[in-house]
Write a structure and sequence with these properties.
Blueprint: H1 9-20, E1 24-27, H2 31-36, H3 43-57, E2 63-66, H4 68-72, H5 75-91, E3 95-102, H6 106-117, E4 127-130, H7 140-148, E5 152-158, H8 165-168, E6 171-172, E7 175-176, H9 177-188, H10 190-194, E8 201-205, H11 212-215, E9 227-229, H12 239-246, E10 253-257, H13 259-262, H14 268-286
Parallel strand pairs: 1-2, 1-10, 2-3, 3-4, 4-5, 5-8, 8-9, 9-10
Antiparallel strand pairs: 6-7
Helix pairs in contact: 3-5, 3-14, 6-7
Bound molecules: orotidine-5'-monophosphate.
The site of orotidine-5'-monophosphate has 19 residues, from strand 10 and helix 13.
């Protein structure tokens, strides 16, 4: 019997958002949030916070995005909590986008790719955020490792923080730095686009970037991959902003929200309801 080709990350993401709506729910255990849930800001509090998020989100949202920094802050035992959560979410069929924004030179990038996306990664994620400021092509090991294992990457292009534009709007000859990321991701997604499918190389474009997409003349619809839009909620990004920022690329947008959703905890049902309501609202907008 001929083995079936494994589904790509883009295919799995499309199916997940069709089933659950477009929300990417963040797990960002900030000290203030953990304490507002009545937990102590220590390893026990981190574990309890994470377990509540997993219970609320697993099987109920399309994608969960744990922010690695908040787990790394507790050292190897914090990372073990993160690895446990990744495993539980994926076992429930929920896609995990690990937000670690890794970026380095080729051989070191290859080690990061193996660590998070490889065939023998200890706790592989379905996708990883990556930082392209050592050059788009420095990401090659992550792009190739992800593709080989049906996983994805999200490349920073226009980040939601106000300082991002100092680098991302800068021009390299005719092209802005952001546009090199758009063209790089589009090239990775050519085959998927030709097949009428969502590609597995995504970009990060914040919901808070105002008119930057238009000013820089970026063709986000041509990327052919998912467009992670953080900044919804706590950073001030609204559903209306998503419309303005993304225009005809709206169907590929994966809006991400962390604090705004997490503030509905610690009650599991309350947290799940907030995530579902946010996802439903966004689904109507993106339809
Ligand atoms: O890659 C990201 O997810 C990301 C990119 C970006 O441009 N801006 C941004 O806020 N993020 C992440 O998205 C999350 C935003 O959290 P909230 O502002 O609480 O919704 C954090 O984990 C950020 O690190």
């Amino acid at each position: 019997m001929t083995p079936q080709p494994q589904p790509t990350f883009g295919q799995r993401l499309r199916a997940a958002t069709q089933e659950h709506g477009p929300l990417c729910a963040g797990i960002d255990p900030h000290r203030a949030l953990v304490e507002s849930w009545g937990l102590t800001y220590d390893l026990d509090g981190l574990s309890a916070f994470t377990a509540t998020c997993v219970e609320a989100f697993a099987g109920h949202v399309a994608v969960v995005k744990p922010q690695s920094a908040f787990f790394e802050a507790f050292g190897s035992r914090g990372v073990a909590v993160l690895e446990g959560a990744i495993g539980q979410l994926r076992a429930a069929g929920t896609l995990v986008l690990l937000d670690a924004k890794r970026g380095d030179i080729g051989s070191t990038m290859a080690a990061y790719a193996e660590a998070y996306l490889g065939g023998s990664a200890p706790a592989p994620a379905d996708a990883l955020t990556v930082s392209p400021y050592l050059g788009f092509e420095s990401l090659r090991p992550a792009l190739d490792t992800a593709a080989a294992h049906g996983r994805g990457v999200f490349v920073l292009a226009l980040t939601s923080n106000p300082e991002g534009k100092d680098v991302q709007h800068a021009r390299l000859g005719a092209l802005s730095v952001a546009e090199t990321m758009v063209l790089g991701a589009a090239a990775e997604n050519v085959q998927a686009r030709a097949a009428g499918e969502l590609g597995s190389t995504g970009l990060v474009v914040g919901a808070t970037v105002g008119t930057a997409v238009q000013e820089l003349g970026l063709d986000l619809a041509a990327v052919g991959g998912p467009l992670l839009a953080p900044g919804v909620g706590a950073q001030g990004g609204t559903a209306e902003d998503l419309k303005r920022v993304f225009g005809d690329a709206l169907p590929n947008v994966l809006p991400a929200s962390s604090r705004d959703v997490l503030s509905a905890g610690p009650d599991v049902a309350g947290l799940r309801d907030r995530a579902r309501a946010t996802s439903d609202r966004l689904a109507t907008l993106l339809a």
